[in-house]
Structure to design on (799 residues):
């Protein structure tokens, strides 16, 4: 009966995870890696086609939300209006806010606009200093010419006043 | 440049380090200069690696990452790692890291590649990556590298190298204990029991209360205890096994071992205590199953024959019931529902990408039997692959629908273009922008002249100009040539009126010029807008047909590729499913085989008990008859 112990002792001594050493596992793993590579390549082509078809460079305007430290403002949502019409109302998850604070930039909206002047108004909702409800707006009138236009909706901490700042600018 | 690459490398490190460590020591915010790079980072930090890779590749193709070229390539490598494409990552890193890369960057990158490969079970490939690390890594990574290297050596059965690496090493607290454990394991597996036991014993006496260290301590004690049992030294095994916590994951094995240590020394009564405790625990554990045989074995040795027989009979029934339940579980797996249930149970999991693993068991018959298998690396990796392929298929199914819409859009645009072209051309002919530009230039020249010559009445109102003309005309009348007091008086009044008009025009002149300049500027903008619109229309008129043909061509060639890939993915899903089912069923069959063995042993033991009982009865009857 004691021979059963042998199995257990060897199990106990395996301090390291077992290797994926069987051939089937390796073959499937390599098949999945190939499929991922091919589907990613296909997605890249589809992504480019979709953007070029729906938002041609001449009329394209993309709005990006960015954020620095985030000590004075905990972002909940951003609402955007272009020429008085609401085009985006985005609620951020905790993970997305963290992604913004770490340097990520969220493309909140992409649109086609005619050449000429347009007005963007953005409302930022969240918790301000001392955890109070906080809602602030920012606006900018910009001229859309030929070629894609990228606008930045920026949330920034103003150290001197211990307050958040919100502004819109063209991404140079 | 090196500093920026190191920042990007810090991103990759954040991927590879466990999530908690990433939170504590994660890299600071990245300074983003191209919005599309920032967008890739956003998806990357969210854990949506697939979208991040697609966006990165698209932005690279459009040359939208001019300020982040090198970092982007390193990030691509890191994303490939997180998305489980370690070979792809290896290719990217190799290209980036040859030549004149800073040694610090190169060594760190090889280290992380080694770590990922090892955790995915590719031990030899991990060994290659470790071998590529040149100088010593920075202090914070060096202990981890040493530990990884030693584990690789142990798995490759290169015990001498593992021992040489670990023996005498002085690392930070915590790491030293892991090193001692690995050193003990390497020595024991090499056959140097005494020295190996010495190291395991030190780890087994740790007084660190952190959960992971308590786990390490238990593991060391179970390993050491069983090593002594296998070397027929039960007296040394017992106190070691007794150090294991009663509620930890190793407690069943420890209880079984303590019982064997007592029984090996002939102390069957003492052995009954841990074994009886164990036999009341969950029958899924092999140690518990074994205890069902161990208890009657000890009872038999204590001549409690009737109790022993009853316990063996109970064990046989328990094993038979368990066999039936496992058979039901196998039927459940064969019905194909297992994988769906597994994926559903982790649908809400926060873990992502490379870190994703099955951590919640679905409430199904098979789950309780597959716990060990499911916690194992091989099953987790296979399930991760299945989930990834499923997502790829769903992704392409969505694109398939979208591409149908794209085709309809292109057709509509083609029709709209053909229909609107004549109207647009007619409109363009009517709108003579060149003439508009010429008129604008004439106006500007006229205003310049008026301003430089201070032509006061040029910008005056019609009425004022009319009055001046009338006054000037009147002044030229022959009557005013006469000399008479009445005429002199009329001339003075005429000159006064002319003077008033002149003074007014003088006073308003600058304001009028300013107003005209403003109007002219607005006209300039209007002309520019008209010219821009004209260019846009020209561009559309000339290029739209070729653009539509290009879109058409792209959609036409993409559609069959999507279909073909979906079919391939379906096939792959089938293969992955069969593999997972095979693993699960094999694990269950293995349990059945073990139960079979235990059942046979129970039957033999029961027969022996009955034999002994019968022999004893016969002896008793013979002696009674003799009397």
């Amino acid at each position: 009966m004691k021979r059963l112990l042998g199995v257990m002792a060897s199990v106990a001594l395996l301090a390291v995870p077992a290797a994926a050493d069987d051939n089937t596992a390796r073959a499937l793993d390599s098949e999945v890696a190939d499929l991922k590579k091919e589907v990613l390549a296909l997605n890249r082509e589809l992504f480019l086609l979709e953007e070029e078809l729906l938002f041609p460079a001449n009329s394209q305007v993309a709005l990006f939300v960015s954020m620095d430290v985030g000590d004075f403002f905990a972002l909940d949502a951003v609402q955007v209006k272009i020429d008085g019409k609401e085009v985006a109302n985005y609620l951020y998850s905790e993970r997305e806010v963290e992604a913004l604070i770490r340097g990520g930039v969220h493309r909140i909206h992409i649109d086609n606009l005619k050449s000429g002047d347009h007005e963007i108004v953005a409302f930022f909702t969240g918790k301000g200093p001392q955890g109070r409800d906080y809602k602030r707006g920012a606006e900018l009138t910009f001229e859309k010419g030929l070629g894609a236009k990228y606008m930045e909706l920026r949330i920034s901490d103003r150290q001197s006043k211990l307050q958040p700042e919100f502004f819109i600018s063209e991404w140079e | 440049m090196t500093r920026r690459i190191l920042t990007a490398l810090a991103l990759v490190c954040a991927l590879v380090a466990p999530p908690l460590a990433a939170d504590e020591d994660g890299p600071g915010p990245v300074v983003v200069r191209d919005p599309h790079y920032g967008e890739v980072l956003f998806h990357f930090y969210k854990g949506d690696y697939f979208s991040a890779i697609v966006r990165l590749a698209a932005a690279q193709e459009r040359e939208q990452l001019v300020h982040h070229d090198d970092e982007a390539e390193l990030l691509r490598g890191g994303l490939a790692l997180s998305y489980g494409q370690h070979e792809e990552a290896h290719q990217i890193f190799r290209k980036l890291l040859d030549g004149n890369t800073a040694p610090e960057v190169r060594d760190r990158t090889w280290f992380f590649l080694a770590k990922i490969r090892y955790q995915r079970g590719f031990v030899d490939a991990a060994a290659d990556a470790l071998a590529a690390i040149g100088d010593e890594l920075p202090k914070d990574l060096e202990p981890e590298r040493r530990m990884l290297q030693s584990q690789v050596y142990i798995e490759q059965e290169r015990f001498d190298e593992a021992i040489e690496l670990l023996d005498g090493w002085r690392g930070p607290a915590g790491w030293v204990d892991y090193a001692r454990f690995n050193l003990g394991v390497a020595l024991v597996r090499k056959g140097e029991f005494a020295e190996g036991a010495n190291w395991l014993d030190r780890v087994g006496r740790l007084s660190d209360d952190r959960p992971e260290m308590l786990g390490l301590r238990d593991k060391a004690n179970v390993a050491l205890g069983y090593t002594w049992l296998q070397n027929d030294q039960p007296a040394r095994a017992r106190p070691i096994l007794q150090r294991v916590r009663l509620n930890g994951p190793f407690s069943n094995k420890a209880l079984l071992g303590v019982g064997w240590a007592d029984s090996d020394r002939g102390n069957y009564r003492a052995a009954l205590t841990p074994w009886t405790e164990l036999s009341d625990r969950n029958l899924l554990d092999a140690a518990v199953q074994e205890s069902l045989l161990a208890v009657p074995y000890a009872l038999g040795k204590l001549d409690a024959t009737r109790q022993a027989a009853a316990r063996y009979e109970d064990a046989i029934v328990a094993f038979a019931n368990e066999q039936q339940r496992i058979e039901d579980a196998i039927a459940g797996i064969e019905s194909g529902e297992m994988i769906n249930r597994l994926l559903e149970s982790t649908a809400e999991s926060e873990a992502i990408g490379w870190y994703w693993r099955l951590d919640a068991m679905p409430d199904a018959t098979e789950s309780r039997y597959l716990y060990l298998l499911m916690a194992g690396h091989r099953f987790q990796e296979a399930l991760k692959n299945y989930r990834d392929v499923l997502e790829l298929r769903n992704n392409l199914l969505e694109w398939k629908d979208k591409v149908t819409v794209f085709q309809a859009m292109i057709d509509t645009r083609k029709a709209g273009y053909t229909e609107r072209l004549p109207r647009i051309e007619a409109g363009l002919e009517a709108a003579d922008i060149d003439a508009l530009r010429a008129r604008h230039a004439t106006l500007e020249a006229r205003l310049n002249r008026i301003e430089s010559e201070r032509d006061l009445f040029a910008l005056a109102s019609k009425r004022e100009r009319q009055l001046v003309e009338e006054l000037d005309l009147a002044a030229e009348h022959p009557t005013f040539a006469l000399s008479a007091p009445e005429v002199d008086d009329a001339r003075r009044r005429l000159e006064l009126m002319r003077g008033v008009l002149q003074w007014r025009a003088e006073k308003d002149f600058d304001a009028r010029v300013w107003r005209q300049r403003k109007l002219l500027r607005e006209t300039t903008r209007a002309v520019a807008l008209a010219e821009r619109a004209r260019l846009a229309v020209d561009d559309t008129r000339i290029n739209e047909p070729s653009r539509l043909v290009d879109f058409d061509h792209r959609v036409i060639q993409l559609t069959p590729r999507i279909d073909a890939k979906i079919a391939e993915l379906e096939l792959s899903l089938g293969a992955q499913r069969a593999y997972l089912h095979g693993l699960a069923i094999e694990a269950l069959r293995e349990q059945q085989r073990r139960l079979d063995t235990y059942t046979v042993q129970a039957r033999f033991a029961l027969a022996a008990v009955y034999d002994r009982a019968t022999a004893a009865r016969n002896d008793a009857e013979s002696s009674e008859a003799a009397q």
Remarks:
- Chain B touches chain A through 100 residues (CB under 8 Å).
